[in-house]
Amino acid sequence: MSGLVLKLHPKERVLVNGAVIENGDRRARLAIMTPDAHILRLRDAIHPEEARTPVRRVCYAAQLVLSGDLDPDEAQHQLLRRIEELSQVLTDPDSRAQLADATEALIARRYYHCLKALRRLIPREDRLLAAAQR
């Protein structure tokens, strides 16, 4: 089976090309065969009031492209600039690798993969912000 496979918990919601879909009472497994479908698990979504840090703001912008609320052509330059800004601060090899993955995915217009790579930076950002407050 090719394509993206979504494993959904009971009553879990997912956004597919702008439409919210809710799973039924049982676990489900869906194969998304359309390669350019925009998909976002709502449990993974960052809410606007949570987008208060640099990494979360970039994640939120990528999420807006996935949800269809932001035009991909308009977002491309803005997201690339924000990822470049993050690379000036997050200089460790692991962060650089995630930022490189996010950039590659963004250039290839694979917004879910871009968001996924960026979300991996959130725990690092949290640690850095906590250390700065000490």
Quick gist of this model?
The chain is of the alpha+beta class and about 130 residues long.
Descriptive overview:
The structure is a single chain. By secondary structure, this protein is α+β, with helices and mostly antiparallel strands. Helices cover 51% and strands 16% of the residues. It contains five helices and five strands. The chain has helices at residues 54-67, 72-89, 93-107, 111-119, 122-133; strands spanning 4-8, 13-16, 19-22, 28-32, 39-41. The strands form two sheets. Strands 3-2-5 form a three-stranded antiparallel beta sheet, with helices on one face. It has a two-stranded antiparallel sheet with strand order 1-4. Strand 2 (13-16) and strand 3 form a beta hairpin.
- Using DSSP, what is the number of strands? 5
The helical percent reads 40-55%
Total of helices: 5
Strand line-up across the major sheet: 3-2-5
Through-space gap between termini: 50 Å
Radius of gyration: 16 Å
The run of helices and strands is EEEEEHHHHH
* Percent of sequence in beta strands: 15-25%
Structural class comes to: alpha+beta
- Mean of the pLDDT scores? 91
Low-confidence stretches: none
Shape: globular
The biggest beta sheet is recorded as:
3 strands, antiparallel
List keywords for this structure.
134 residues, alpha+beta, 51% helix, globular
Helices and strands, with pairings:
Blueprint: E1 4-8, E2 13-16, E3 19-22, E4 28-32, E5 39-41, H1 54-67, H2 72-89, H3 93-107, H4 111-119, H5 122-133
Antiparallel strand pairs: 1-4, 2-3, 2-5
